[in-house]
């Protein structure tokens, strides 16, 4: 057996070990994504898929974590290649951040598996996600571990699914009257997009006349006031307010998710 064959066998063993690990995650999903959630989002732009790995902290405590974002590609001849992005990162309490991106050609043939694993300080896996993409002749099929959970949640939901099968994400709505208000909306939405927030709730940014020449800007979800302040034209101030307002919004959305999960569990 030559060195190339030996190297290939070692690589395939490592590949199989990772797959076994991710299958183990799937079988024991109840132990992961409880406090720290790993999630891969998919976006299609023209000829490419962009896969964004994210981490979300469901606790109020700041933590240091590590992530592995691994991409395996298997071509028609069963040749396997691997790319891995790994790094330490800091995650604030009740925060959500984008970790890394992987860009894949829409017409690429073969099987592609993307795995995201989050580790705590002790190296123990605490969050994970896995997406499999099969592509043949330009036709793509996605398989996601969380599909079963999403379908079950839809069945338990009081709200019927739309007849066309399309579920729309919530919107960030703007009712501003000054340039400062519009700038705040721009900074808020930029953070909202970069952190890959996904919610069915609409977020309203509203600006009304305030004291003297200042206006008052508020951020609401379902008429629930989450943050408000008197505006200033200074860019750094508006960016700081946008970050704070989004942190409050994420924390509130997480509370709603926990309340819904507790309600479903009781019934």
Automatic annotation (TrEMBL):
Gene3D superfamilies: 2.60.40.2420. InterPro entries: Curli_assembly_CsgC/AgfC, Curli_CsgE. It comes from the Bacteria. The keyword Signal applies. Residues 1-29 form the signal peptide. Keywords: Signal. Pfam families: CsgE (PF10627). May be involved in the biogenesis of curli organelles. This is Curli production assembly/transport component CsgE. It comes from Aequorivita lipolytica.
